[in-house]
Amino acid sequence: MRPLTEEETRVMFEKIAKYIGENLQLLVDRPDGTYCFRLHNDRVYYVSEKILKLAANISGDKLVSLGTCFGKFTKTHKFRLHITALDYLAPYAKYKVWIKPGAEQSFLYGNHVLKSGLGRITENTSQYQGVVVYSMADIPLHPKGGKVSLNTH
Amino acid sequence: MEGQNVEELLAKAERDEAEKLQRITVHKELELEFDLGNLLALDRNPPTGLRHAGPTQEAELRALARDNTQLLINQLWQLPTERVEEALVARLPEPTTRLPREKPVPRPRPLTRWQQFARLKGIRPKKKTNLVWDEVSGQWRRRWGYQRARDDTKEWLIEVPGNADPMEDQFAKRIQAKKERVAKNELNRLRNLARAHKIQLPSATGMHPTGHQSKEELGRAMQVARVSTASVGRFQERLPKEKAPRGSGKKRKFQPLFGDFAAEKKSQLEMLRVMNSKKPQMDVTRATNKQMREEDQEEAAKRRKMSQKGKRKGGRQGPGSKRKGGPPSQGGKRKGGLGGKMNSAPPALGGRRKGGQHHGGKRRK
């Protein structure tokens, strides 16, 4: 377990900033505690200082996970966000897409969302923008792999 | 009325006296054992009142402590006293209780090389006197140490031996020899220490004196030997079945796990600010490389012009030699890439290219 290097932090921030933009500094600098990013076995964990101090007592090969896993660095040092980060990204998302109940299941099983399935969308969303998908009940969703591509703009 | 008051007062005084006495004397079934040297009082009376299960009886414990302390103080008052700077002080006897060791017993150290040798040969230390008679100064001097009896570095007249170089400084020679002896002694002392504490000595070649080395040590020594060539091992072929060593690169250094959280946060916020600022940040490396490239091109153009002029004018030496020397100003600019200070003459004379390669560390990244 170790802190991220400058390079790794930059790559990770760039990826996360695609979804939440400047709100990322609210994740870094929180009023209710010191939270930090730590790397363990190529995975990035977002963990509070208290939990980190406890986790330091566990040897590296026995430690499975700590805090929340945000994502992992691939072999070629690219950052891949994981579904476990959704809880932290959803409240700060800049561009949101709401899908109708009918299209929800289809999305969750990995299919693309068609324009007919689109319920609401934040205005000024540009093409190829990173968005967070919600159901009509404002629950953030994550498929096992699907793209949201807007053909309107 | 007054008589009654007086009587009452007297009775009260008597009662107070009795109470005080009672306080001083304490009744115990078994006498306490005292070790006044350690200010210790040992009470072997069974604590009947404290055996009740339940909350600890503070009052009873306090009373017990008070009684025992009173007895100890009584004993102290019986010791012989003396006056030390206006204070009455009791002289304590020698402590009788033997306290246990604070630290564990020290383990036996390994013998030094001399001790091993002496043991082997059966050499026992000869008893020597500390003082020796010194003829030169006419007094008893130490055998060794400060102002010793026969200090050969302190002689004022040294005869040059027959086979020695007459120009050699004999005094300096003796001082040098002494320094070497001291250094050798120090080295041996440290070696003995290292052997005692089982610390590994840094070895220059990586080879062990006795030849019993582990696989990793041999591998490391081999790697060091391979890299100790003029070209730092670049043109060193490997043996047919030799494998490249693992983990011989520079070890990466990471920030500590619990570093300064505030500093980490600050650097991350700074990075975010830069990312969000939407202005392209100047990449210093690329800017300097660009500058240097432009200068190179300018110089190349100038040289071409000079050589053409020279050819036309029949190969005059003037412009040619100037080329070798090189304009020092450009050598200087090369360093900072941003019009920094001028270098002194030697780097420019050494060859423009060479100077550039040494100073411009970040060139052409």
Automatic annotation (TrEMBL), chain A:
GO MF annotation terms: RNA binding
GO cellular component, one term: nucleus
60S ribosome subunit biogenesis protein NIP7 pre-PUA domain mapped to chain residues: 1-83
GO biological process, one term: ribosome assembly
Pfam families linked to this entry: pre-PUA_NIP7, UPF0113
Keyword Nucleus found: yes
This protein's record includes keyword Kinase: no
Key words, A-Z: Nucleus, Ribosome biogenesis, RNA-binding
Superkingdom: Eukaryota
Listed InterPro entries: NIP7_N, Nip7_N_euk, PUA-like_sf, PUA_sf, Ribosomal_synth_fac_NIP7, UPF0113_PUA
Occurrences of domain UPF0113 (ranges): 96-141
Function: Required for proper 34S pre-rRNA processing and 60S ribosome subunit assembly.
Assembly notes: Interacts with pre-ribosome complex.
Family statement drawn from the similarity comment of this UniProt entry: Belongs to the NIP7 family.
Identification of the protein by name: 60S ribosome subunit biogenesis protein NIP7 homolog
Organism of this sequence: Vicugna pacos (Alpaca)
Gene transcribed to yield this protein: NIP7
TrEMBL record, chain B:
Region (Disordered): 231-254, 273-365
Main location: nucleus
Gene Ontology BP terms: endonucleolytic cleavage in ITS1 to separate SSU-rRNA from 5.8S rRNA and LSU-rRNA from tricistronic rRNA transcript (SSU-rRNA, 5.8S rRNA, LSU-rRNA); ribosomal large subunit biogenesis
InterPro entries: Ribosom_reg
Any one GO cellular component localisation term in the record: nucleolus
Subcellular location: Nucleus
Organism superkingdom: Eukaryota
Function: Involved in ribosomal large subunit assembly.
Protein name per Swiss-Prot or TrEMBL: Ribosome biogenesis regulatory protein
